[in-house]
Prior knowledge:
The chain is about 50% helix and about 15% strand. By secondary structure, it is α/β, with parallel strands linked by helices.
Amino acid sequence: MISSQTNSRYGDVNMSNGLRAARTKAGLRLEDAARALGLSESGYLKKERSERGLKGDFIKRAGELFGVSAEDIIGEANTPVEEPIDIDLPKSLKAARIGAIAHLRLTRAEKRNALDDVTVMGLETFFTRMSSDIRAVVLTGEGAHFSAGLDLSEVAEQHEPLEGVLHSRMWHRAFDTIQFGRAPVIVALHGAVVGGGLELAAAAHIRVAERSAYYGLPEGQRGIFLGGGGSVRIARLIGVPRVMDMMLTGRTLTAEEGQAAGVTQYLVDDGKGFETAMALAAKAASNTSTTNFAVLHALPRIAESNPASGLLTESLMASIAEMSGEAKQRLRDFLEKRAAKVTRQS
């Protein structure tokens, strides 16, 4: 029997996915496929939807009918399929999931994915309403750029200082749902990552840059100031002196300079950002929920604490993490040599 669960880069995928994809490519209706394989429509449909294994001889007969090999069907089963996420989002955002990983896209390509209020509030909506079974999120931007930052039309007409304060606080609230949410967020960067776009990227937990990416903070030249958390998050990534330089002089950083400065953790060739981000998300998604919570919520707060408070918080979080049933099972697996050891990676 061929197992219904095959190891893919993005998690487990049912073998039945391959059966359905092969029939669709062959242009066969469900009833025709069922008849040719000697099954009722409901019987065949159960196989397409089954989470159990499909016998090798059935896979072979189906492959002959669809004009593909059994290996092709197995290959289709290993191809991740995006499914829509049922959250009401603005047109500037699109969300789908591949297994336990969500893919959230900025879709204002004609505006270089500039962030208007509707988009920022949509980000907050997504990260607060995200299903609990999503274990990681990949954030990308459509078109030639990740994000050119704040849509300046949103602030050009503000007349009272309080309006500006409340607008900035709205951005803070939205980006806090990213940094302190329920799942790790990996962002893939390309093209312009400027102003508010860089502030958005800084709220993620892991940043992957393609070589086309470049970073800028043009607020100084626009007569405004950082308002989306950048004075805190970006300064912690690359240091206050470098942020001052970028804001005072309009200096931009290349992808390579950003990597060296600490903007990103990974630098990849153009076109490889999403693939790399998905692979990293799959690794993060495989951790226990308690460990990921500790990394996302406790670790940054410990780093900002005085040493005595930080160490106490670390002890408390370590005890909580170790007490989970999943952690105990993983520790047993390691001690009984069923889990892989840490090895050097190339």
